[in-house]
Amino acid sequence: MAIGMLTSGGDCPGLNAVIRGAVLKGYKVYDQEFVGFRNGWKGVVEGDIMPLGRPQIIGIGKQGGTILGTSRTNPFEGGGAERVAEVMEQNGIDALIAIGGEGTLAAAKRLTDAGIKIVGVPKTIDNDLSATDYTFGFDTAVQIATEAMDRLRTTGDSHGRCMVAEVMGRHVGWIALHSGMAAGAHAILIPERKTSIEQICEWVQSAMDRGRAPLVVVAEGFKLDSMDDEHSERGLDAFGRPRLGGIGEIIAPMIEARTGIETRATTLGHIQRGGTPTSYDRVLATRYGMAATDSVMDGHWGRMISLSGTSITHVSFEDALGTLKTVPDFRYDEAAVLFG
Ligand code: F6P
Fold first, then answer.
1. Rounded to 5 degrees, what are φ and ψ at 30?
2. For 12-40, what is each residue's pLDDT tens digit?
3. Which pTM was predicted?
4. Residue identifier of the C-alpha nearest atom 13 of ligand 1
5. Residue nearest ligand 1's atom 12 by CA
6. What CATH class does 2-136+277-320 carry?
7. Which of the following CATH numbers is that of domain 139-272: 3.30.70.100, 3.40.50.460, 3.10.450.50, 3.40.50.300?
8. Fewest CB within a 10 Å sphere: which of 2, 119, 234, 244?
């Protein structure tokens, strides 16, 4: 019997390293065969299968994206557990490794409850899963955002402008906090901390008064203290969640109007998810992949691979999906000492 593997939800640097780690461990240690499902749960419910042996994984550990393709398809809109079981049976697949974020793992939990054998691997650049210390892809996103901010700072310096950099992260501010701290931002705005425009302008003005071109980093899910909800004007995704983005363009003119400092906004967007993973993410992803194969061989169904300190372990889907890992106050307050 083969193990079926799928990558689902938004892509993330390191997905290919997980696939390679899982297949290599299976091949070398257990003489185990794999097949891939194309485009996440969509491929599972449609029975869209591709070979996944050693020839397919050659050199992929350093490649961005996913060789399997991905989608935000919800399997319960395409037949649910019955259809998944049927496709697995027809193709001689005994168990699944599902690599994905919150939406993917929630679907995996429902399928496991219905008797499908699944092991999950956490994936998201947002780093918002509380049951793992880090998700792969986060380090790469932070690195890309930091490099972009270093560039924004030189052009900001040349023109004496305030630069606003908007980063991803959905409901959490981890990418903003880490990249902002690394780039020496004068203000970091995160979803966990509503802030007034007056406070933001105070930080901007104070940096300007010291002869610095202010850099403001804003997470896409940030709310001004006058806002009830995140800024969203792009409708909902397949799991019914609001698509975020654009808050930087709202804040920049407000800063300019109040301070008189010329201000420009840049949204980094999907650049944060593209390209080669950092070495940290390659190692983490490879270890996750190898551990996923071990968990399948040990029959640990309904569990997600996780990082605890420097050790790889696994937790139940229930625990994995419990709470969002938000930025704690002490981490924000520590960074805020450096603002302005
Ligand atoms: O969850 C990862 C993420 O990149 C979020 O940071 C962002 O809000 C969302 O996905 C974007 O999704 P999509 O690729 O569907 O536009």
1. -115, 0
2. 999 999 999 999 999 999 999 999 999 99
3. 0.96
4. 10
5. 10
6. alpha beta
7. 3.40.50.460
8. 234
